[in-house]
Write a structure and sequence with these properties.
By secondary structure, the chain is of the alpha/beta class. About 45% of the residues lie in helices and about 15% in strands. Helix 5 crosses helix 6.
């Protein structure tokens, strides 16, 4: 699974830290972030956001170290070297405090990086509208029929499809299903479940959490869920931690809309398996991609 690296700031590095250059780095990264958000360049957008957060954290660590040193030495010499928050070119104390709360603690900093990466993906994916299954209803994107032969080979049948439409059921043929109007998030899920959730936020996070919950409480006896392989998102890791196996597709699933138009997702997909027959899943999906099994 992809992880967000944690840039470490050494004490020696802070000793030679130049706050003006540090804040310039923040400004440059913010400008790059706006540019690449407009351009929908996911790779460069993530790079800019990570640079911005890292530069902000480094400033906070330097600032707090400087504040801690103000208790000793000659006051006049200190006042000449310690910058004042809010002075021209310096962030206000309110801004510094916001950076401190979100970034100083390394665990929070890592969460901020992960959340930022997820926001970048949402920005780019929402605008391109290539998510594959953008909710249910008129903007539905369907999973090709050949994958359901594999799903039925593993599950034996589909008792429930909780995020679907009437037209999609011509292929899925679940015994029971929930449309957008039924709001599957408010229903209990039981038996053998097929789930291709809406990929827009916050829906995908909500549906993944629902799948994990229903599996953990024993309502879902077995299930397969199809998503994009956003391995840097919190919801993907939540699903992977619960799943008994995951298949990362070789190539991309060619979703299609009600008119037959083929979608163009920008990344591959992942099939999550929840159940006790991992051998059946490996046998069925090994031709589709690389299968990883939870120990």
């Amino acid at each position: 699974m992809k992880s967000v690296p944690s840039p470490r700031v050494e004490s020696g590095e802070l000793a030679h830290y130049d706050p003006e250059r540090g804040l310039k780095a923040v400004a440059v990264a913010e400008a790059a972030e706006k540019h690449f958000a407009r351009a929908k360049d996911l790779q460069q957008l993530e790079k800019a956001v990570k640079s911005k957060l890292s530069a902000q954290r480094k400033f906070v660590l330097w600032w707090d170290g400087l504040e801690n040193r103000k208790g000793g030495g000659d006051h006049r010499s200190r006042s000449a070297t310690v910058p004042i928050a809010g002075r021209q070119g310096m962030p206000s104390r309110t801004v510094i405090e916001r950076w401190r709360k979100a970034l100083k603690d390394e665990a929070r900093f890592l969460r901020a990086l992960a959340d930022a990466v997820e926001r970048c993906a949402r920005i780019c994916e929402h605008e391109k509208n290539v998510r594959g299954t953008e909710g249910t209803g008129e903007n539905e994107w369907f999973t090709p029929a050949e994958y359901f032969d594999l799903v039925r080979a593993v599950l034996g049948g589909i008792d429930l499809d909780p995020a679907t439409s009437l037209q999609a059921q011509e292929i899925v043929k679940a015994d029971k299903f929930f449309t957008k109007e039924d709001d599957g998030l408010k229903q209990e899920w039981h038996g053998r479940v097929w789930l291709n959730p809406p990929y827009a936020q916050p829906a995908i996070d909500d549906f993944v959490s629902k799948m994990v919950h229903e599996r953990e409480v024993g309502h879902v006896t077995s299930g397969i869920m199809l998503t994009h392989n956003y391995t840097d998102t919190s919801w993907f890791h939540r699903a992977a931690a619960c799943a008994d196996a995951v298949c990362f597709t070789r190539g991309r699933v060619k979703f299609y809309d009600p008119t037959g138009e083929i979608a163009a997702p920008t990344q591959g997909q992942a099939f999550f398996y929840f159940g006790d027959d991992r051998a059946a899943f490996i046998n069925a999906f090994s031709s589709t991609g690389f299968v990883m099994v939870r120990p």
